Every structure is written in structure tokens, then in C-alpha cells.
From TrEMBL:
GO terms for molecular function: alpha-amylase activity; glucan 1,4-alpha-maltotriohydrolase activity; oligo-1,6-glucosidase activity; sucrose alpha-glucosidase activity. This is Trehalose-6-phosphate hydrolase. Belongs to the glycosyl hydrolase 13 family. Transmembrane segments: none annotated. The keyword Hydrolase applies. SUPFAM superfamilies: (Trans)glycosidases, Glycosyl hydrolase domain. It comes from Amylocarpus encephaloides. Residues 55-468 form the Glycosyl hydrolase family 13 catalytic domain.
């Protein structure tokens, strides 16, 4: 990709009081021709490319009337289908609903063909599928097959005896050594992903070997080297496809192949840490692509599917294109983590500084990579493993949260790829407040992390404060608070008098679906109304926003993200997003003239702004215009 030269934006506060804007606009104003790489081919249209996917976290989405569990349910999802349809959703992806002891909120499955009683029954799923179908919508299942629950009959059989016929279904290794007191040492130094103070290996007293469980001890990794394991997984996939699912989100699918011999990880966490992230030895491991092609051959090729592989820890273009290139014969798309890991050093529960330029760089990179190489993007900035986007990428204060949430919506609806919205993002739910006592945080990762802080730093006030800050900024719990439906008890998530499994956010009386669907403001759309309108624009102009070319016009600029999208027939739209609290002016390239500004996050309808030369934006303002 070519670099575009100089910054074409000037901040108001950068101007001295006697300076006119014109003087500062100064020298060269580039033309878009100077900035463009040519685009030769456009992607083939497909339903799964244009689909808007909505991720449901079933525990927190909607309980059904009469339920006393305080958990969301499948019946609850069915009750909300009209809501989702009216927002503009085509595909519902629910995080796991299969039978599970819930050590990791369903990402530990003990029966792939049964529904967890918290959520309902197979009949409820059939009813959900029928109701989705009536509305022209589809269901994507969460396929968790890197590991099972330690309560899965396969593991119960594998455990306990080296002679078990299912022994080889999991990854077993002898102790590396024994301490003087006879305690066995794990085969290597890999840390648990959801509790980095602990080993990823767990000792089975009975059979005197360790099993590998990368996430928690309750989630033993399956041994994909074993062909019977793979066949059992194909069987599970056929089961759900035949029942009516449209496809799968595949949990950490790039971790299924481990480097043989399980080498020690580099000691990246530094002294004082016994265990270290072993990613290098299991992220996109040696047999990954072989397995993904087998999945395609044995299962996916037999149906018309939507598939998205969760692939943390990889940003190598060649590797990624092997999976999502149009002729890859692997998956339709993957989740690339560069953006949601922007503040991650080597483990998730930590902080790294970042800036808007870096954020823009990541988005632009993947837009261009897929365009230039015939691959396909997923567009997402939230999910159940990340803090809320409005808190993370913009300003979630009462003053700015709505502008920020709509700015992010505008960015996403104008990016190429399949769009994923996470529950609550459509009303701008923000992170839980730092005043919440630690007991309100329920996620196993947060619990392990806080325990580690207490074990290591109980007497160190600064370290403990940092630990709490990391929880306030990064905990997965922020995305898991109950959905805010209405200004009534329990926010309408579950019946009055029932205690929700997790605390409802304190702001539910002002931030809720009921209020935002109605829209109380005469001058502005609510976040929900903005999403709804913007999704219509995206669909109406899919040739531009889903499939079109993408060129960034603001690479050197520290705060403003500007890009244009262009359809195959030359229709071009300009997106100008101010990712700062300052007012800014953006100097348009000489050859750009706007026909009309279609929408923005400050107004209800068309935006009144200059159509040439210089356009100014208020704090966190974003606008979308069609070019002449
Ligand atoms: C990724 C899932 O999104 C996360 O919630 C889970 O903890 C791990 N995979 C393990 O399944």
C-alpha cells in the first residue's frame, strides 16, 4: 500500500489566535488519485457477506416470563426476534447453549447434542429455528471443539487409566520431573490462558500423567491428531446443520494443532513467573490448515454455510489468507484480533498504550489486505470477551457516550466485510463502573486474575490499584452484564423479584432499549435509531459499503479517520470520523466534492456542512457523504 503523504487536518487548538485557517491549510492538498491504489476485481456477492450478524450472550440476553433462574434463555431469545428483525439483523449467533457445567460460561461443553438446562431444551431450539425462519433469519451455533468440559463423557473415560480406549482423545504427558518431595512437575512451562499464574497442565493422580487444558483445568484440550476425535466432531457439526443451523462461529479454532514435543515457552512474563504464554506452540500450529480443509471437505462443503473462525494471536497475512482467501476451501472468514488486542501486551489482563493512528492502521491494513488478495473480513469491535467499545475507543462519559457509540456505528457500517454487532452495542452500553465491588465480577478470568494480584501484591497498594484498574478496563464481565431492555426492575431482563445472575448496570433507567427505540430527542437519533438507519444505508448501498474499494485519506493524521468507499460502477462515498474530544478541521483533497452529506452522529437527517475544501467536525463527530 502506498503512503499518502502529509497530514491534511489541522486542529483548532493548534492555530494561534491571529492565524486564519487558510494560512494553516498551507501547502499541498493531495488529490485522491495521489492516494489510491487501483482495484481490479470486486468480490462475488454472497448472502453471508451481506448478512448482519448479532451476537447473543445467552446468559445475559433475555430470561422468559415465569423463569426464576435469573439467567437468559432460548425462549427469551425467541421472544426478541421481532426486536432483532426491526434493528436489521439477519443472523443470530448465540454463545454456547449446549450442556455445560459452566466453568467458563458454556465454553466447556459436556454434551454437544443437548441443551444446558439453564437455557432450555432441544425443543426450544427447534422453536427458535422455526421463528427465525419465518422472519427470514438464520442461526449460527458456537462450536467449541478445541476442548470439551472435564465432565464430558469422552474425558471421563479418557481420565483415570492409560489403557482407556479414549485415552488418546486428549493430550496426556508424563511429568517432566519430580520435586524432592515427590510432587510431579508439569511437562512444560505453558501458562493457563484464563489464569496465567497457573500451569496449563493438570495432574491426574490415578493415571500419574498430566493432561493439557489451555484455558482452565475444566477445559481439557482435545487431541485433534486422533482421527476418531475429528470424526466425532464432524458428527456434531452435521447434527446441528441438519437441525437447521446456518453455520458456526468456531471457538479458538486456530489452537487445535499443537507443536509436537510441546517445547517450553520463552519466559516473556519475566522473573517471578513460573509459567509463560505458550502461544507460539499452539497458535496456527503445523496441522491447522490440513484440519480446516478436512472440516470443509467432510462437513461444510455439503451445506450453504456461514462460518467464522475465532483466531486469536495471528496477524500474519499469508496465514490468514490461507483460511479466508476466496478459494481457500477452509472458512468464510475469521475474527482477526489486532483491533481488540490493541491494548494487550503479552497477556489479556494487562495494559499497553495505544493511539488512534495505530487503530486506524489496523483497520486500514485489513480492509486493504482482503481487497488486494480476494479474502473476506469480519467487521467487529465487541464480543463477550472484551470491554465495551464506547468505553474503550471513545469517551463513555454521560456527555459523550451517545456520540461515541454512534461514531463507532458509522465506522462499522461503512467498512467492508460481514458485520457483527454484539448485544447492547446497539444502545451504547458501557463498562461497569469502577465503584462496583470486586464480588460483582463473575468471570473466571477476572477471578483468577484478582487472586493472582492478591497472592503477589496484597501489601503493595500501587500494584493492587493497578490490578483493579486493569479489571475496570479489560475484564470480560463488562460485556456480560444483563441486557437493558426497559426502565423497570431488573431492566426487563428477568421477572421482578428474581435475582439476575449478574448485576444489572446502574444506568439502566436512562440507557435502555425501550427508550432508545422511541427516541426522546428531537434533534438527534438515539444510538439504536442510528444503528437501525445506518444498517438500512449499508444494505441499500451494499455494492459500496460491503463490497466496494477502500482508500484511507488520513494516514498521517493523529485523530481523524477519513476514508472513501467506491463501488465497481464508480459510486463513491466519503466517511470522516473525528476520534477526539477536540473540534477539528479536515481539508478535503482537491478533487473531492460532496454531493450531499447523508448522515452524521449529531443530527437526525442530512448534515449541513460545506461540500468542498474544508469541513469542520465537533468532538467525536462522524459524517458520511456521497461524492459527486
Ligand atoms: C474463546 C471464547 O470466546 C472465550 O469466552 C472462552 O473463554 C475461550 N475461547 C475458551 O473457550
Amino acid at each position: 500500500m502506498r503512503a499518502y503523504g502529509h497530514s491534511s487536518r489541522i486542529r483548532k487548538e493548534d492555530l494561534g489566535s491571529n492565524n486564519s485557517t487558510f494560512e494553516h491549510v498551507g501547502a499541498i492538498v493531495p488529490t485522491t488519485a495521489m492516494m489510491s491504489a487501483t482495484k481490479s476485481s470486486y468480490p462475488d456477492p454472497q448472502w453471508w457477506k451481506e448478512a448482519v450478524v448479532y451476537q447473543i450472550y445467552p446468559a445475559s440476553f433475555q430470561s422468559h416470563p415465569g423463569s426464576t433462574s435469573g439467567w437468559g434463555s432460548i425462549k427469551g431469545i425467541t421472544l426478541r426476534l421481532d426486536y432483532l428483525k426491526s434493528l436489521g439483523i439477519d443472523v443470530v449467533w448465540s454463545s454456547p447453549i449446549c450442556q455445560s457445567p459452566q466453568a467458563d460460561m458454556g465454553y466447556d461443553i459436556s454434551d454437544y447434542k443437548q441443551i444446558d438446562p439453564h437455557y432450555g431444551t432441544l425443543n426450544d431450539v427447534d422453536e427458535l429455528l422455526g421463528e427465525l425462519n419465518k422472519r427470514g433469519m438464520k442461526l449460527m451455533m458456537d462450536l467449541v471443539v478445541n476442548h470439551t468440559s472435564n465432565q464430558h463423557p469422552w474425558f471421563l473415560e479418557s481420565c483415570g487409566s492409560r489403557q482407556s480406549p479414549k485415552r488418546d482423545w486428549y493430550i496426556w504427558q508424563k511429568p517432566r520431573s519430580f520435586r524432592s518431595d515427590g510432587t510431579p512437575e508439569p511437562p512444560n512451562n505453558w501458562a493457563q490462558i484464563l489464569g496465567e499464574a497457573n500451569s496449563a497442565w493438570n495432574y491426574d493422580e490415578k493415571s500419574k500423567e498430566f493432561y493439557l487444558a489451555l484455558f482452565t483445568p475444566e477445559q481439557p484440550d482435545l487431541n485433534w491428531e486422533n482421527a476418531d476425535v475429528r470424526a466425532a466432531i464432524w458428527d456434531v457439526m452435521h447434527f446441528w446443520m441438519k437441525r437447521g443451523a446456518a453455520g458456526f462461529r468456531m471457538d479458538v479454532i486456530n489452537l487445535i494443532s499443537k507443536v509436537p514435543g510441546y517445547p517450553d515457552a520463552e519466559e516473556t512474563l519475566g522473573p517471578g513467573h513460573k509459567y509463560h504464554p505458550g502461544l507460539k506452540y499452539f497458535v496456527n500450529g503445523p496441522r491447522l490448515h490440513e484440519y480446516l480443509r478436512e472440516i470443509h471437505r467432510e462437513v461444510l462443503s455439503k451445506y450453504d454455510t456461514i462460518t467464522v473462525g475465532e483466531m486469536p494471536g495471528v496477524s500474519d497475512e499469508t496465514e490468514i489468507l490461507m483460511t479466508v482467501g476466496s478459494n481457500s476451501g477452509e472458512l468464510r472468514m475469521i475474527f482477526i484480533f489486532d483491533l481488540v488486542d490493541i491494548d494487550k501486551p503479552n497477556v489479556r489482563m494487562a495494559l499497553k498504550p495505544w493511539d488512534v493512528k495505530e487503530m486506524k492502521g489496523i483497520i486500514t491494513r485489513w480492509q486493504r489486505v482482503m481487497i488486494e488478495n480476494n479474502g473476506w473480513n469480519s467487521v467487529f469491535i465487541e464480543n463477550h470477551d472484551n470491554p465495551r467499545s464506547v468505553s474503550r475507543y471513545t469517551d463513555d462519559s454521560d456527555e459523550w457516550r451517545f456520540k461515541g457509540a454512534k461514531l463507532l456505528a458509522l465506522m462499522q457500517i461503512t467498512l467492508g466485510g460481514t458485520l457483527f454487532i454484539y448485544q447492547g452495542e446497539e444502545i451504547g452500553i458501557r463498562n461497569a463502573p469502577s465503584t462496583w465491588p470486586i464480588e460483582e465480577f463473575k468471570d473466571i478470568e477476572t477471578i483468577n486474575y484478582w487472586k493472582k494480584c492478591n497472592d503477589l501484591y496484597a501489601d503493595d497498594e500501587d500494584q493492587m490499584a493497578l490490578g483493579r484498574k486493569i479489571i475496570d478496563m479489560k475484564a470480560r464481565d463488562h460485556a456480560r452484564t444483563p441486557m437493558q431492555w426497559a426502565p423497570v426492575e431488573n431492566a426487563g431482563f428477568c421477572d421482578p423479584g428474581v435475582k439476575p445472575w449478574m448485576r444489572v448496570m446502574d444506568d439502566f433507567k436512562t440507557i435502555n432499549v425501550e427508550r432508545q427505540v422511541k427516541g426522546n430527542d428531537t434533534d438527534e437519533l438515539s444510538v439504536w435509531q442510528f444503528w437501525q438507519t445506518a444498517l438500512l444505508y449499508r444494505k441499500e448501498h451494499a455494492d459500496v459499503f460491503v463490497y466496494g474499494d477502500f482508500q484511507e485519506l488520513s494516514t498521517q493524521d493523529p485523530k481523524t479517520y477519513v476514508y472513501h468507499r467506491e463501488s465497481q460502477n464508480g459510486e463513491r462515498w466519503l466517511v470522516v470520523l473525528n476520534f477526539s474530544r477536540n473540534e477539528v478541521e479536515w481539508i478535503m483533497p482537491e478533487d473531492v466534492e460532496i454531493d450531499f452529506w447523508l448522515c452524521g452522529n449529531y443530527t437526525k437527517g442530512h448534515v449541513e456542512k460545506p461540500t468542498r475544501h474544508v469541513v469542520s467536525l465537533q468532538a467525536w463527530e462522524g459524517i458520511l457523504g456521497r461524492c459527486k
